[in-house]
Amino acid sequence: RMSQRQRADSTGSLGPDDEVMPYSDDETDDELDASSEGEPEEPPEHEPGAQPPVDTSVKSNDRAYHQLPEFQRKVFLCIKKSKYSGNGIKTYKYNAITFIPLNLFEQFKRAANLYFLALLILQIIPEITTLPWYTTLVPLVLVLSITAIKDLADDLATNESIKPPCNRGCPLLSFQETKWMDMQVGDVVRLKKNDFVPADILMLSSSNPNSLCYVETAELDGETNLKFKLALKITDEKLQQEHQLAQFDAMIDCEEPNNRLDKFTGTMQWSRHSYPVDLDNILLRGCKIRNTDVCHGLVIFAGADTKIMRNGGKTRFKRTKIDILMNYMVYSIFALLILVALGLAIGHGFWYEQIGSLAWYLYDGADQSSVYRGFLSFWGYIIVLNTMVPISLYVSVEVIRLGQSKFINWDLQMYYAEKDTPAKARTTTLNEQLGQIEYIFSDKTGTLTQNIMAFKKCNIGGKTYGENLSPWLPVDFGWNQYADPKFEFMDHSLVACIRSKQDQETLEFFKLLSLCHTVMVEHKEGELVYQAASPDEGALVTAARNFGFVFLHRTQDTITIKEMDHEATYQMLALLDFNSDRKRMSIILKFPDGRIRLYCKGADTVIYERLSPHSLHQETTQTSLDIFANETLRTLCLCYKDISQAEWDEWSRKHTAASIATRDRDAALDQVYEQIENDLLMIGASAIEDKLQDGVPETIANLAKADIKIWVLTGDKKETAENIGFSLLVLLDLSNRITFYCSSNSYVGFACSQPHLQIALDKSVPKCMSNIGFDVNAWQVDFVDMACECEAVICCRVTPKQKANVVSLVKKYKKAVTLSIGDGANDVNMIKTADIGVGISGQEGMQAVMSSDYAFAQFRYLERLLLVHGRWSYIRMCKFLRYFFFKNFAFTLVHFWFSFFNGFSAQVAYEDWFITLYNVCYSSLPVLLVGLMDQDVNDKLSLKFPKLYLPGQRGALFNFKKFFISLFHGIFVSLIIFFIPYGAFLQTMGQDGEAPSDYQSFAVVTASSLIITVNLQISLETSYWTFVNCFAVLCSMAIYFGIMFDIHSAGIHVIFPTYFTFTGTASNALRQPYLWLTIILTVGISLLPVICIQFLSKTIWPSVGDKVQRNRKKYEMEAEEEKRPPTFQRGGRSRRSGYAFSHSRGYADLISSGRSIRRYWAVFSNKL
């Protein structure tokens, strides 16, 4: 008998179901927009919530079949190829031939690079150019080269990681070694222990009993725990020998290739019979064979069609607010450039009409009109003023972001030694956004809590056990040879009740826990080792084990347990597995005496709907559930139902038909499950404790002081969510809150003067849950407005998809910067939807980490990530951008002032090589170091004063106001740098009696004044001085003077007379003392206003940061003097976690395939 997992689409969510979808390509924002506007959604490649179409056929041992004309598709013009992909994979972008042209093509798709390429072309035209071609070529080549090297390094790293698998060997049907790339769809392959799976393969048989195969999926989802795969019963029995495999001629009809790692639907047609195929029969490419000597399989998907390769694309690109703002500013600069060039071109036309055409000595031999000359002048000024558009800006930003990401990775204070897990910045493009977070959306279980479960209390037959009413020692389980020594329970009365065997309900309670699960058991060195799909299941089975109901062994048809002093084997007829939509699991067993019984456990919301009216203890159990929830325990209801043989036979036929359906199989199974899971009888309820992680309340309190609003999104009951809110310090006052309910026909709201908000969403009402409980846009706006006015929000009873939708609503209507943090696969949608996604490497695998932007091991590290690294990154980037724009304006606008004295002829004010090297050598290093290393206060003060975080949230350090301040600052400095030397050169006399008032000497003095000014200006902006910063400033000025004297020397002029024309200018001009005085005066006047403004602002209008900086030494001394609190504190209250029965999908399909998992039972029985 084959039981299939139910995966019905959640009618209460948008688009995708609420299953674990670690690699889905959900675009939650797009879906929300589409649903809000009432327009149909654009379906993705395979809509995650729908059943993929079954229209791919694979024939075993028949390569020619897959080359038939009906399977050919056009790839280019009349060239066709098979739609079945080969197993060779092209993972690299470039090769030796295509690297340069392809990389250049990609880089010139960027507007800035294309703009400078156009300028370079213009500079080749003699009538237009006023600058030599190398002034643009050298910076452009440098930028392109740095980017190309980075792209090549990334491509080589990717290619090296993929190339070895592509060249691994694997035996085909003839069991001759062949390379992966030579395999094709339909081939039968043999895999050995520790081999990697070369393609998506239908498992046929293995050397293990019943063709069980253990695989490690670390390359798929990062999880190192072993998973189980197995073959169909028919192939296990008939395909063990090589000649049998050679004659295997089945046809596999399955879904089209897609990216769903958690789903596969197909049917095998063989010998006129149909057999259902699902994910538990499929070995995915990238898995590693473990604990299995040999296994055989049929290649279903190869190469680019495999699921792991389908997940290689469609990564959502996240951009920071500063990125968007920076692009708008670059567009503004370009518009300003056009306007300035147009104005100067018009000026040249008027000048030539009135002056130039009348001066015989200015005649150049070209009979051109003033309009045409103005037109040429316009393009000339586009070239001259091109440095207003910063070509090196984007490359510099990427270098800074890369360095900031490395600092996060190297932070030892975010290293979790217990699991050897450092913090990891998985992206380099979002660092400064960490300093602007306004809303944090957090999962609870495993994120705020440890996700390490312990069985604490239970209610059986209306009586509650687990209360510690006296200072007794924990229960001694020495009477039970299978007891787990780590298990603790305080209520001795429950053990006495069980051992007396008088209370049948108590025995039935623990029998259910030992039978109704999907836990796998291994026997290692005489010990029982349980492998559970979730910590909840492991805790419940371990509890039953300690109380005398020991799960010993299971096959695919039976479960064997030890009930106190005797063993019993139950025949498993069907297993109805858990998922996040069903919120329950059931098992149908045939007892040794022939009775058929259904055991069910699940969340109270779904169990109470299915209870028989004659069920006892409903009220008392509900009271206990409320008490457990108030104690922030995770609750679960247990019930049963006796089934007659006739009822079972009828249901079994329906179940078999649904399990082999080729379309809508999940919906069909869901309907069948609903028919049997009714009229249940209550046994009791369990309560599990999940403790908070260390430092969580303190972290949340400190983030709240930084005006970051914390929203906890959980599937818990309202009472549990409320209590966990108080224990987390999210909720501080029970009286001041709003409780909001949404149901099919009611809306109740209570507003208070100092509100907190809790939202209890009734997931059983599909209509209202289509948009987080709202079915019109106005309700969405009201919900967001009301929630965002509150200090804290807890959303309870929400599904994974609804978590993502809550984030989307806040992003859509508040335009706020959001961060989502979670640890499980059910948090992936939320993590991918937020502006910043943070994954915690906890107990639920690595799916959240692999979908995140940043990852670490403990929630408390979020405080340091935001208040230290995020704030520093934001401040550094803002300083860098403000200064970068300033220095380019100050440099470029000197040409503008010079135009009024040269007839608007597009003549440059500097030497050509100075223009070429200004951004490359003379002014780049100091600002890069500020962007990488600057900090206003140290990390300890950043954590001590969370209010320092506020400027980032408000965008106060970089916006259009700051941009225009940089613009006007650059205009002012350019004005001073031009006109003071110009005034000094009007009437001057050197020491030798000659007047050095020539253009070249003026260019040297102006350039020298500019270099000293901009380097001292960045010194004034630097808050954190190190030897490296000091060296960079002095080194930049030294490099300028060293290069200038070299290129002004006679020797280089002799070698390249055309390109180096300022021969002897530097040595001649800079030996005049009054020119040095001019430089000093220019620099002093340029910097004096900045010094005065900084002094007045920090003295009269100090910010919070200024105040902290002023008293920095005092605070640092106080921090050193503070004594550490004692390790042990009496009277500390225990912290508990809340309810959510939300474990991941279990091993039901694996277990219920109709065969034994292990055939060592006889050996094990003899040992016992």
Automatic annotation (TrEMBL):
A Pfam family matched in the record: PhoLip_ATPase_N
Predominant location category: membrane
Active site per UniProt: D443
Residues engaged in binding ATP: D443, K444, T445, E537, F578, K601, R634, T714, G715, D716, R797, K803, N826, D827
Biased composition (Basic and acidic residues): 1115-1125
Transmembrane segments: 328-351, 371-397, 880-901, 913-933, 963-987, 999-1018, 1030-1056, 1076-1097
Gene Ontology molecular function: any one: ATP hydrolysis activity
Subcellular location: Membrane
Keyword Metal-binding on entry: yes
Classification via PROSITE patterns: ATPASE_E1_E2 (PS00154)
Residue ranges constituting the P-type ATPase N-terminal domain according to the UniProt record: 67-137
Cofactor(s) demanded: Mg(2+)
GO biological process: Golgi organization; phospholipid translocation
Region (Disordered): 1-59, 1115-1137
Entry annotated with the keyword Magnesium: yes
Keyword annotations from UniProtKB, A to Z: ATP-binding, Magnesium, Membrane, Metal-binding, Nucleotide-binding, Translocase, Transmembrane, Transmembrane helix
Catalytic activity: ATP + H2O + phospholipidSide 1 = ADP + phosphate + phospholipidSide 2
Entry's family note: Belongs to the cation transport ATPase (P-type) (TC 3.A.3) family. Type IV subfamily.
Protein's name according to its UniProt entry: Phospholipid-transporting ATPase
Gene: atp8b1
